[in-house]
Design goal:
217 residues, nine-stranded antiparallel beta sheet, disordered N terminus, 5% helix, six-stranded antiparallel beta sheet, mainly beta, Jelly Rolls
Length: 217
């Protein structure tokens, strides 16, 4: 899938409060923990995706998206949850990392998160709500954030070490965390999350070290 970025007016849907991953985690139980050896392998002229050395590797060689070729089924997350992802950027020129939380069926919703690490400008992130029709045609329903610049402390972060990315949903509020810091919150319609999508574009390599989903006890 080619990376297509169109610039539109930004509409913010702010959820109340900041929320806390630590408070959520203390009163939660694990319902999914990725076994990367079972995740699919894909290889093409655009890069590689597959398990390697206990990690899951995404390596892109161009601005064409590279990923496992399909969504990964996970434990169904029907209500409140937190998804914790530990990742490491091994090398990059530019780097765009995509995480998609998706329902399934014939017509369904997705939340699409992009973390963009640029050589010549500060890192940005984008968050979209997608609508999938006939389990094939994907359209952007809402743009919650589009190429928003990160705060200074995140702009100078060392992405070459183990870093954390977390997505938390409580009620109809969603919080997006990087390195333990809440960078954006918004209100979105709730839907059961049944599948996880990952992808990478531009010349870069990223290791997923762990993917864990938790729900309240």
């Amino acid at each position: 899938m080619k990376k297509i970025i169109a610039l539109f007016c930004l509409t913010l849907f702010l959820a109340p409060g900041v929320g806390s991953t630590q408070e959520f985690t203390r009163g939660s139980r694990t319902v999914y923990q990725a076994q990367f050896a079972t995740w699919p392998t894909a290889r093409s002229s655009h890069g590689y995706a597959g398990p390697e050395g206990g990690f899951y590797v995404l390596e892109a060689t161009s601005n064409t998206w590279m990923g496992p070729g399909r969504f990964i089924p996970i434990a169904v997350l029907p209500g409140d949850f937190i998804l914790d992802i530990s990742f490491q950027v091994v090398h990059r020129e530019d780097c765009s990392l995509n995480i998609t939380l998706s329902d399934s069926g014939r017509d369904y919703s997705q939340l699409n998160f992009f973390l963009d690490l640029w050589r010549s400008s500060p890192p940005t992130f984008s968050i979209y709500e997608n609508w999938v029709q006939n389990d094939f045609y994907v359209s952007i329903r809402r743009r919650f954030a589009e190429r928003m610049t990160m705060r200074q402390d995140l702009s100078t972060a060392d992405w070459g070490r183990a870093n954390s990315l977390a997505i938390k949903r409580e009620g109809n509020g969603v919080w997006f965390y990087l390195r333990g810091e809440n960078v954006y919150s918004f209100g979105a319609p709730t839907f059961p999350v049944r599948k996880l999508g990952v992808g990478l574009s531009f010349r870069s390599k990223v290791l997923f070290r762990s993917v864990v989903a938790r729900v309240p006890r």
